[in-house]
Design brief:
The complex is a heterodimer of chains A (about 180) and B (about 500).
Chain A (H helix, E strand, L loop, with lengths): L1 H27 L5 H34 L15 E8 L2 E4 L3 E3 L3 E8 L4 E6 L5 E7 L5 E6 L4 E7 L11 E7 L5
Chain B lengths: L14 H32 L7 H31 L7 H23 L22 H33 L2 H5 L15 H32 L7 H35 L7 H16 L13 H13 L1 H16 L8 H23 L2 H7 L4 H27 L9 H26 L14 H30 L4 H8 L1
Helix pairs in contact in B: 1-2, 1-3, 1-15, 2-3, 2-7, 2-13, 3-4, 4-6, 6-7, 6-8, 7-11, 7-13, 8-10, 10-11, 11-13, 11-14, 13-14, 13-15, 14-15
């Protein structure tokens, strides 16, 4: 599950930060003499350069890995998806043109709003978000997504839109293609 | 440069200064407790422990958001004023005018929410304020006027501070220390408070101006609905304003750490080239990073989304490698004097450094696709606001309370209150982050039963934080309002 990976990475990084603080705090009470302070100052600068290098490599790697295939589909050219769904958000309901989709072939969602900003989020049968975009008045945002698991998917509004925001829910079915 | 004297003479407050400074701090701690109580009510309602009707829930949410952001701005402005006045001339009238305009703005906001039923949240995304259905466009207009008053007050303070800085340092570039970026002998007495203050003035003035533009556009739209606005443009302006306003609170708050930390470690903590580079970079970063709030607005130009991600990730460098690392190096083997201010400073640095991690991760487009507008988001911003920025301000307050007896406070109750605050805060923010992992939506009055456990854990954490914060508020309020010490009276007379 993608969210679990994100959670693990965040916990690990925050844990490292916490360990660093705890270690320094444990050493804070011991005052060093001038010579030791000078050595510590030099050591801290060397360590900072190493940390800078490591962070730079991680930064470059993450940037390349996360952007070389841009995660947002083209918005101003044909996506040529086999399945197309038009979605309009309104206070406080969804108008979804198709309620049955199939697994294995890309679906293009064309999402807009008839009034205020809404958030079009698709929840998988296990209750986790698989993808989302904003539904904005005057704009059409396009999602390209291929479902792999059949089941009942729920649409929830993830941008606050007024009193009926929480119950603004819809549902569609994803089924395996005939013959499978 | 920050001094090593615990209570230097140039930080003494005249009678007038003390009165205005106390107004800021006492108002802030009282407002924090009140806004936290609203937050607790919302978490309990989401967890099915309290029944808040949706219309009331969203009004409470609007009040909590606007109130917390505004109060963070108020209290960290007091931090910046307290230290910056040592290096440049700041006029008390500008500091007081900011407070008065803040109060007037707050009254407008409270009136629009609790009398006019406004519930369009502090982010007021177009065109919701004028199409809320359950509140009138006029109450939205009063809310906007409240924001404008607060923004005008802050701009007045910044203009006064900018004039003071330019009079002493010549221009913003020299105040930021840009002349030493590529070489030259750095003046070790160049104040970090001036570097940080200058960055805040540049960035947040731009943000407030962007906010003013969008608020005036809204007001025109409310009274002339035929003048339709571009939803994407207004969203960009709104987040440009909102992002810089809330980030400015961190950069104003951290001045307390730069100034106070060396007094508790006993080690000099002067400017360095990496420090100047990090603040120069942060000045640019904070101005251009706001598109990370619009990663799910696919109509946004692609280069803006890429900028949002890359700059978000880049923000790790100055925070980790300069501010947090530099502070830890100063603390290491220092013979640290552990009292409430120093403990709060360490907590604040941890809260900022750890809290930025989930924020940066969420700034990745592919992550944002599953985390945007889930409770991951309040998880990360509560992390660095509750455990980062607020402790920075509390550290200064405790320090000032100690100035009466020339000794930083460190009572038994203080030593119990701080762990309570830390544990409660961690439970509270981790409950949010875990809810983000589970795809729990943010800003919903009612939650699915399977979401209740994280809501309830969050409510327990919030209750612990409120217990600790209530104690801090009483302790600080009483400490600040005590009669000035003899030395202060002499200073006031002179």
């Amino acid at each position: 599950m993608y969210q679990d990976i994100i959670w693990t990475v965040a916990l690990a990084a925050m844990g490292l930060v916490a360990l660093g603080f705890l270690w320094v705090i444990s050493q804070a009470g011991k005052a060093a003499d001038a010579a030791s302070s000078q050595r510590a100052y030099h050591g801290a600068n060397v360590l900072r350069r190493w940390l800078f290098g490591i962070l730079l490599v991680v930064f470059a790697g993450v940037t390349w890995a996360s952007l070389h295939r841009f995660p947002i589909p083209r918005q101003h050219a044909a996506l040529d998806a086999a399945q197309v769904v038009d979605v309009i958000g309104r206070q406080w309901s969804w108008e979804v043109s198709t309620t049955t989709l199939t697994t294995g072939t890309p679906v293009e969602f064309r999402v807009t709003s008839g009034d205020v900003n809404h958030g079009f989020a698709i929840y998988a049968p296990d209750g986790r978000i698989v993808t989302q975009t904003q539904a904005m008045p005057g704009f059409t945002n396009r999602i390209l997504y291929t479902f792999t698991e059949p089941g009942a998917y729920r649409v929830m509004c993830l941008e606050y839109c007024g009193l009926g925001h929480a119950p603004m829910v819809s549902e569609f079915q994803v089924v395996a293609p005939e013959g499978n | 440069m920050a001094t090593l004297t615990m209570y230097p003479d140039d930080e003494r407050l005249s009678r007038g200064e003390r009165s205005v400074f106390n107004l800021y701090l006492v108002s802030a701690v009282a407002l924090f407790v009140l806004m936290m109580l609203l937050g607790l009510a919302m978490r309990m309602s989401q967890g099915n422990w309290l029944a808040l009707a949706p219309d009331l829930f969203y009004r409470v949410l609007s009040m909590h958001g606007a109130g917390m952001v505004g109060t963070m701005g108020l209290v960290t402005t007091a931090v910046m004023w307290f230290f910056l006045r040592k290096y440049v001339t700041l006029h008390l009238w500008a500091f007081l005018a900011n407070y008065v305009l803040f109060l007037l703005g707050a009254l407008c906001i409270i009136g629009s929410i609790f009398i006019g039923n406004y519930a369009g949240l502090w982010t007021f995304l177009y065109p919701l304020p004028s199409q809320g259905m359950v509140w009138s466009p006029q109450s939205a207009a009063v809310f906007m006027v409240g924001y404008l008053l607060i923004g005008v007050g802050m701009l007045l303070f910044y203009l006064d501070a900018a004039a003071g800085i330019i009079r002493v340092f010549g221009n913003f570039a020299r105040a930021l220390g840009l002349q030493w970026l590529f070489g030259g002998q750095i003046d070790p007495s160049h104040p970090k408070a001036v570097v940080a203050g200058t960055m805040v003035i540049i960035a947040n003035s731009l943000g407030i101006l962007a906010g003013a533009v969008v608020l005036v556009l809204y007001l025109i739209n409310i009274y002339d609905p035929q003048m339709v606005l571009n939803a994407l443009l207004t969203k960009n302006l709104t987040y440009w304003f909102g992002h810089m306003y809330i980030n400015a609170t961190i950069y104003m708050g951290v001045i307390a750490v730069y100034e106070l930390l060396p007094r508790y470690t006993g080690k000099p903590y002067s400017v360095s080239r990496p420090f100047l580079w990090s603040w120069a970079a942060s000045t640019v970063f904070v101005i251009i990073v706001f598109p990370h709030h619009l990663l799910m607005d696919y109509a946004e130009p692609r280069w803006m989304a890429v900028t949002g991600q890359i700059i978000s990730h880049g923000a790790l460098f100055p925070v980790f490698l300069v501010t947090a690392y530099g502070a830890l190096a100063n603390v290491y083997h220092s013979g640290m004097r552990w009292t409430m201010p120093s403990r709060l400073m360490m907590l604040s640095l941890f809260g900022w450094a750890a809290g930025i991690v989930p924020a940066v991760i969420d700034g990745t487009i592919s992550v944002n696709r599953v985390m945007h507008n889930t409770q991951w988001v309040p998880g990360h911003f509560h992390f660095y606001l509750l455990l980062g920025v607020l402790p920075m301000a509390l550290a200064l307050m405790y320090h000032v309370v100690g100035s009466r007896r020339q000794a930083p406070p460190d009572s038994g109750a203080d030593r119990i209150g701080l762990p309570l605050y830390l544990v409660g805060g961690l439970v509270f923010v981790m409950a949010f982050l875990d809810a983000g992992r589970l795809s729990v939506a943010r800003r919903m009055a009612t939650h699915l039963p399977e979401w209740w456990p994280t809501d309830q854990a969050g409510a327990i954490g919030a209750a612990l934080v409120i217990l600790a914060m209530s104690y801090f508020a009483v302790r600080i309020g009483a400490g600040l309002l005590k009669a000035p010490a003899d030395g202060d009276r002499a200073h006031a007379a002179g």
